[in-house]
Specification:
This protein has 247 residues and is an alpha+beta fold. Among the domains are: 32 residues, no CATH class; 110 residues, Beta Barrel (Lipocalin), CATH 2.40.128. Helix 2 packs across helix 3. The protein is extended. The N terminus is likely disordered.
Length: 247
């Protein structure tokens, strides 16, 4: 039958607009025709029951404001009995501090720094200031120290080392800003740079002993030094440990 040339033949009802769209729609049209046929078949069974789409939808819970005056309250907290009493033995002023500028405690001293470049050594027993120096530069990573070396870093990638009397030892550079306090472990000063590198610098002269290149995560939390000489870098869903001795 050629309907486009001769029009509909006698006895054949012309296709309506919706039906013509179905025919022109190809595969989509055939899918709609099948869906219409199924619905028609289901509705045709209405001799015994009426079909309703709502019979197949989940029923939402009834609206209620009862939770506003619910009388249930959490139970009382257990009583905590202190086993020790904390007290302030002494205080010392260092200067302006920001997150990451925590003091570092060694066996015989406490070292602290401020963003303006101030570095101090304090007697842990009585809080007496042993010495106070200026690095001459704004600091970005706080102070790190052990029994022989004190180290700080700047946002220009400079690493400055001093002895425990406050005398300069050496200055060197890393590839990016220092983002955490340097960690001093014996013969190595560990430095964390903003581009994801971890540097192992020789404590004697600042020369690079090793470098670990890592991909920066979306968020870096902290860098800590373990008692057994391992440096641990804490990140989001990541934990890295490295032996600090030169390879």
């Amino acid at each position: 039958m050629n309907m486009s040339a001769a029009g509909p033949s006698q006895g054949t009802r012309p296709l309506g607009g919706a039906a013509r769209s179905v025919v022109r729609g190809g595969a989509i049209g055939r899918t709609l025709v099948v869906a219409l046929a199924v619905l028609t078949a289901v509705s045709g069974c209405g001799t015994t029951q009426n079909f309703s789409i709502y019979d197949y939808l989940p029923v939402p819970p009834a609206f209620s404001l009862r939770w506003l005056w619910n009388s249930k309250k959490p139970g009382p907290l257990p009583e905590l009995k202190p086993s020790a009493t904390a007290s302030v033995n002494w205080t010392a002023s260092v200067g302006k501090g920001v997150p990451g500028f925590a003091p570092i405690v060694t066996n015989d001293a406490i070292y602290a720094s401020s963003v303006d470049g101030t570095i101090v050594r304090i007697d842990a027993a009585n809080g007496r200031q042993v010495w106070r120096i200026s690095a001459g530069k704004a600091l970005s990573g706080g102070v790190g120290a052990d029994a022989t070396t004190v180290a700080v870093g700047t946002d220009k990638g400079e690493v400055l080392a001093f002895d425990t009397d406050g005398k300069p030892l050496w200055t060197t550079y890393v590839s990016s800003e220092v983002i955490a306090p340097p960690r001093v472990s014996g013969a190595i000063v560990i430095v964390f740079s903003g581009d994801g590198r971890i540097y192992g610098l020789a404590a004697a002269d600042g020369k690079t002993a090793w470098v670990d290149q890592r991909i920066n995560p979306p968020l870096t939390i902290t860098a800590e030094q373990a008692d057994d000489g391992l440096t641990i870098l804490d990140e989001v869903f990541s934990l890295v440990a490295r032996d600090v001795t030169p390879a």
